[in-house]
Amino acid sequence: MLSEYLPILLLFVIASAFAVGSLVVSSLVGPRAPNPTKLAAYESGNEPLADVKGTRFSVKFYMVAMLFLIFDIEAVFLYPWAVVLRELGWFGLVNMTVFVLVLGVAFVYEIGRGGLEWD
Amino acid sequence: MLATFLAQTAATTPIPDVAWSSFAPELPPTITALVLLLVAVARRRQLLVAVPTALLAVAAGVWLIASGETPGALVVPGAVAIVLGILAPALVVATRGRTSLLAAWAAAASLVAALVLTVWQYLTVLTPDGPTLVPQLAMADAIANDGIAVFTRLVVYLSALLVIPLGYGYLQDRRINRAEVEPLLLLAVVGMAALGSANDLITLFIALELLSLALYVLAGLARRDRRSQEASLKYFVTGSVASAILLFGMALIYVATGTVTLPEIGAAVGLVTTPRFVAAIGLALITVGIGFKVALAPFHLWTPDVYQGAPTNVTAFMAAGTKAAGFAAALRLYLVAFPDLEALWVPVLAVLAALTMLYGAFLAVVQHDVKRILAYSAISHAGFATIGLVANSDAGLSATLWYLLTYAVSTLTAFGCVIVLERRRRGEVTLADLRGVGRSAPAIAGILAFALLSLAGIPITAGYVGKLVVFEAGIEAGFTWLVLVGVLASVVAAFFYLRIAGMMFLEDSPEPVEGPYPSFGLSVGVTVSAALVLYLGIQPELLLRLATDAGVLAR
Amino acid sequence: MTAHDLVFVIVGLVTAVSAILVVTSRHLMHAALYLALTLTGIGGVFLVLGAGFIALVQVVVYVGAVAVLFLFGLMLTRAPIGREALDSQNRGLGLAVAGALFVLLAALIIPAFGGESTAEVTGPTIEAIGIAIFADWVLPFEVLSMLLLAALIGAILLARREAGESGTEAEVTRIEMGEALADEPDRHEAVGTSAPAGELGAGGGR
After folding, report:
1. How confident is the model at residue C115 (pLDDT cuts 50, 70, 90)?
2. Tens digit of pLDDT for each residue in B18-56?
3. pLDDT exceeds cutoff 50 at C185
């Protein structure tokens, strides 16, 4: 029964082989003649002004992550629902409608309270 | 196209029968909570939310009245829906954009509706012929409507209804009257009511989490008050650990019995094929988890800090409501799911009850903060309520339910008086601050003393009848030693309750104090709850009979 | 040993090793990333045991959201990012507790299945889970939406600063008299899109 997931495994293997392979091949084959200009930050990149270590993220990221977690859990329930909707018919549709409506209120509340605004 | 797709329902799918009446009382608070959240963010456009709500509610009410199988069967729920629907825009207009006032009135109205529907459910659905209660299982056995469910609904809805007027002015004074208070309170109440009727482990756990989560937030409502933040964090961390332990115990019970429905667990636990060791460990973990939630010693350590730090109205609600709901869940769990393991849990709970009663009573004596004293008193009372559970009989079940009601009204009265005194002191109230209150504010001092007498269990108060019934059940079940411990704890407790009363009436205040400032809501709330304490103390027959009838379990 | 067993052993080893690295790693950020790997590994174990949906939930919720929450939590607090002395000198005690827990769990779970070795792994199908959630446990499912709603209210209520709120905390409870308050504009009105929303606590941003 695990063979169902074989294509996914294959995809993983190919993807990582491609990533590792490209790096290895380019380092083996590519010419190397470093000079300071070549090693500088690429294109529009800037040299970092200060050490990144020790600076902290804004708490807003955390808010967004928490809100994401809540709606993530909501989304998880949609998978089994989609599978059995044909079996459950109207009953299933009404179920999920109520669930989504309650979280819809949550969403409206979140917007109204400025939960999605950055500043 | 959608309709044709949905019409293809396979005939084999077991779609449960949605018995609306089984959770009808929970619907008004739930819907009100959602509408209030929308109103809170609607700002000047509140009517835009209220009018559609009203139309939907009135339509639902008319449909309910018209659709009953026999004419008039659903008149009460229909009428409730119509009244609430009309109230929605009326309140918006009457409160003129003062959202917190609107929220308080709407929440109170929905709780009254919930109480009306509970009584309707009891009278028509659960007692179809004659006074005997016929327990009903509904929603694929997820909920059981029996005595515990009805009584718990009454207690928690009543507590929440009393807490709203008690807290309204207080929250304003502390500048924490956020629009989210009432929705969270209503969600917590729905969780408590659902906990009282949960008949399987999944429903039980989700209901418990709903009420806990709402209370974690409410405890931390005063965001600029370090005590409140501490209370919220402590409650959250210890509560989450307790939930995890409880969930682990439930998982082990499922491993042992292969089912999550309580009556089926009860049937499976006795079988020889069930690994008793696994079931016993599961039971132990569940006991720890429930012990945390209802604050039994030695799992009570969070209680004093949380009760002291949380806003006083939230504390009152936690003490009255959470205890009732938690014990309802405990009663159903132990009496329905684990009757075959009684040799294990009865002695353990008896010891815990004795420990809790004594610990709460003795530690209350050395406290100085009034809220903290009441917190230790709450711990002690959890021990008394456990006596009925330990008795492991129908009489014990009724006794615990009844005790929780008497404790709820007594503690609400006491905390209401504390709120009045906090307003007067403009800050927290310590024991020393109570000196001379009896002279400067005799009414409030008198009511507080009365509530304390009820908590101590002195005759003509509700608390006396509560203790009497619980002790009776304990002695009948052969737990004379436990009852003796209870009497000892009562005596110790009476000492500090009387000390507070003595402080208020016999000692003089060192500095002149202003008179109390009870707001309108506070006066109403305190008066009504004090009247209930007196009523239940003098005329307990009606509700006591209900509690006795409630000793019928859906097994 | 079948191919199935082999996969199980590999996934289990990866999970166990990364779990050990979570607690032994001296670099806090690395520990968090190892935690993400452990959670993914547990998802793999679920998959091997035939519980495809649970594996999906594990990856979507735990790796996708909870682990990220951990990382954000590390990055926005004063938690030391980098190699620093994190050892609380309680290794022995921790080992003893973990060992005791392992023995207890093993002693509980192995006899619960009567010592029989389940050769055929048949996890619940996603249809069975769907029917269980949407037919048998509809009511808890709907209550769950309210649970999530309460969680969301809590997140917004506790983490967002209101307009006009100072960042300082009061040590004592102050209750101001309410008589004058009736004329004050309603506090709910002050909150909303127009309010300048600061962030909680000092620091943050650059």
Report:
1. low
2. 788 889 999 999 999 999 999 988 878 888 888 999 999
3. no
Sign of the CA dihedral with C181 first, then C185, C190, and C191 last: positive
Task: Please say whether the dihedral angle defined by the alpha carbons of residues C138, B243, C67 and A13, taken in this order, is positive or negative.
Answer: negative
Residue reference for tokens 């949609």: A78
Residues of A in contact with C74 (CB under 8 A): none
DSSP class of residue B297 equals T
pLDDT on residue B43: 79
The whole-angstrom distance between B175's CA and the closest CA on chain C is 8
Q: Which of C54, C138, C139, C187 best probes binding to B when mutated, by most B CB atoms within 10 angstroms?
A: C139
How far lies B340's CA from each of B77, B274, B343, B360, in Å? Answer: 40, 12, 8, 31
Question: pLDDT band at residue C79, thresholds of 50, 70 and 90?
Answer: low
Neighbours of chain C (3+ CB pairs under 8 A): A, B
ipTM rounded to 2 decimals? 0.92
Residue C116, pLDDT score:
64
Three-class SS of C96-127: HHHHHHHHHHHHHHHHHCCCCCCCCCCCCCHH
What is the value of pTM for the model shown? 0.90
| Burial grade of A28 (CB within 10 A; 0-12, 13-18, 19 or more) | exposed
Q: State the burial class of residue B1 (Cβ atoms within 10 Å of its Cβ: 0-12, 13-18, 19+).
A: exposed
- Give the three-state DSSP class for B430: strand
Helix (H, G, I), strand (E, B) or coil at B393: coil
Phi, psi torsion values for B141, nearest 5 degrees: 65, 15
Higher pLDDT, B438 or C204: B438
Give phi and psi for B261, each to the nearest 5: -80, 130
Shortest Cα–Cα distance, A89 to chain C (Å): 11
Q: How many CB atoms lie within 10 A of CB C7?
A: 16
User: Hey, where are the domains in chain B?
Assistant: 22-126, 127-549
Q: Cα separation of B384 and B368, whole Å?
A: 23
Mean pLDDT across chain B: 89
Q: What is the DSSP letter of C61?
A: I
Whether residue B401 contacts residue B547, with contact meaning beta carbons closer than 8 Å, is answered with yes
Cβ(C71)–Cβ(C27) below 8 Å? no
Boundaries of every domain in chain A: 2-112
Contact B464, B541 (CB under 8 A): no
Helix (H) or strand (E) holding A101: helix A90-112
Pick the CATH number of A2-112 from 3.40.190.10, 1.20.58.1610, 3.40.920.10, 1.10.10.410: 1.20.58.1610
C6 contacts: CB under 8 Å, gap ≥ 6 = none
CA separation, residue B265 to residues B136, B196, B311, B338, C109 (Å):
18, 18, 40, 8, 18
From the list A88, A102, A113, the residue facing B13 with the nearest CB is: A88
Residue C10 neighbours by CB under 8 Å, 6+ apart: none
